[in-house]
Amino acid sequence: QQQVKQSPQSLIVQKGGISIINCAYENTAFDYFPWYQQFPGKGPALLIAIRPDVSEKKEGRFTISFNKSAKQFSLHIMDSQPGDSATYFCAASYTGGFKTIFGAGTRLFVKA
Amino acid sequence: ETGVTQTPRHLVMGMTNKKSLKCEQHLGHNAMYWYKQSAKKPLELMFVYSLEERVENNSVPSRFSPECPNSSHLFLHLHTLQPEDSALYLCASSQVRGGSSPLHFGNGTRLTVT
Q1: Is residue A20 within 8 angstroms of chain B, CB to CB?
Q2: A99 to B48: CB separation less than 8 angstroms, yes or no
Q3: Is the peptide bond before B8 cis (omega within 30 degrees of 0)?
Q4: DSSP characters over A15-84
């Protein structure tokens, strides 16, 4: 119930293409869904986040799509660039709790 | 200094050694966390401190001992570790208000136990 399942494990995309990473959760108490980006030698950094009262959130080339009934959410990276090559983690947490549950991560490589 | 700072960046220790990891946050946050990051596994929450009080302890072996002397500093004391404890240890902070808020991570300490 506390798991967040993330796929794919790794992804190779051509420069200019769309990168799509999917996540699914079970616990309906989750009310905050962030995505983190991690470069080698660095800690994860917040990329974009969504709450379940909206179905989509867009920030620049990054979009989260959220499907509350299916308990799924996804990250879309439009016009992918080599500089986007990193590991991406989806996560979920709930109000009043200190625990953020992370997916296993997706290694994205954007070919120039 | 801004953000979350962790020292040392790298640490190699034998199984009988005692060492400490240090974390400092300059964001004015009221909660601090230790996470363990191992290859091909999700980030594992180890400990959480809110307002300097431990609020989560995720069944972590007693060879890991956290300390939070104030809201800006967090330590992880290590003793008699095992080789499987080799991992990246990440410190994070957040501002806990009414709802969930994002975590701000440091760059981690890469620990190797020989």
Answers
A1: no
A2: yes
A3: yes
A4: TTS-EEEEEEE--TT--BEEEEEE-TTS--EEEEEE-TT-SEEEETTEEEEEETTTTEEEEEESS--GGG
pLDDT tens-place string over residues B25-76: 999 999 999 999 998 788 999 999 988 788 777 789 999 999 999 999 999 9
Q: Give how far A7 is from chain B: nearest CA, Å.
A: 12
How far is it, in rounded angstroms, from Cα B27 to Cα A46? Answer: 15
What is the least distance, in Å, from the CA of A104 to any CA of chain B? 4
Q: Do A100 and B103 touch (CB under 8 A)?
A: yes
User: Which tokens belong to B35?
Assistant: 């996470």
Q: Which residue, among B91, B89, B79, B94, has the nearest Cα to B23 in the 3D structure? A: B91
Q: Does position B2 have pLDDT exceeding 80, yes or no?
A: no
Residues of B in contact with A43 (CB under 8 A): 4, 90, 92, 105-108
Q: Which amino acid appears at position B7 of this protein?
A: T
Cβ–Cβ gap A44/B99 under 8 Å: no
What digits encode the pLDDT tens for the residues A34-61? 999 999 999 999 999 999 999 999 999 9
Q: Which residues contact A103 (CB under 8 A, 6 or more apart)?
A: A4, A5, A6, A23, A89, A90, A91, B42
Determine whether B69 is exposed, middle or buried from the number of CB atoms within 10 Å of its CB (0-12, 13-18, 19+). Answer: exposed
Q: Decide if A88 contacts A21 (C-beta within 8 A).
A: yes
Residues of chain B neighbouring A103 (CB-CB closer than 8 A): 42
